[in-house]
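User: tokens in, sequence out, please.
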């Protein structure tokens, strides 16, 4: 029996859920020594990798989660002195979220810690598979962002 595109897409989604759970577990283990979870690390990564200052709402869109969930993580990181809020001249209430010096240090320590892990994961795929997967994930991300 030939699988329909919908069947194949559903199988892809289920694999993404599975891999996402595995990545979260791996991230939790790597970030544990810094008192972080993969969820908090993800927020720090969005801030560190952005090419401009971000608000909580912009971080939420970047990482694909609700503003409320992102706000809870931002609050926890702020309480841990890893991020701070900066005035936004374009909006009185939506402040910019920035890494503190301590936050930058922790983020880059984690970045370097994960490099051997990333190299190992990359070795599981060919370069063509890596680029193809990245391209497909970006297309899905764009599609779902634009069709809410």
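Assistant: Sequence out:
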């Amino acid at each position: 029996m030939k699988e329909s595109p919908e069947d194949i897409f559903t199988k892809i989604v289920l694999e993404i859920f599975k891999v996402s759970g595995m990545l979260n577990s791996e991230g939790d283990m790597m970030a544990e020594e810094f008192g972080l979870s993969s969820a908090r690390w993800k927020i720090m990564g969005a801030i560190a990798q952005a090419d401009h200052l971000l608000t909580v709402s912009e971080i939420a869109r970047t990482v694909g989660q609700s503003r409320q969930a992102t706000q809870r993580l931002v609050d926890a990181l702020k309480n841990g002195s890893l991020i701070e809020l900066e005035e936004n001249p374009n909006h009185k209430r939506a402040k910019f979220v920035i890494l503190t010096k301590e936050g930058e240090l922790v983020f880059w320590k984690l970045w370097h810690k994960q490099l051997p892990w990333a190299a190992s994961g990359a070795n599981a795929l060919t370069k063509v598979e890596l680029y193809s997967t990245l391209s497909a994930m970006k297309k899905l991300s764009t599609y779902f962002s634009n069709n809410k």
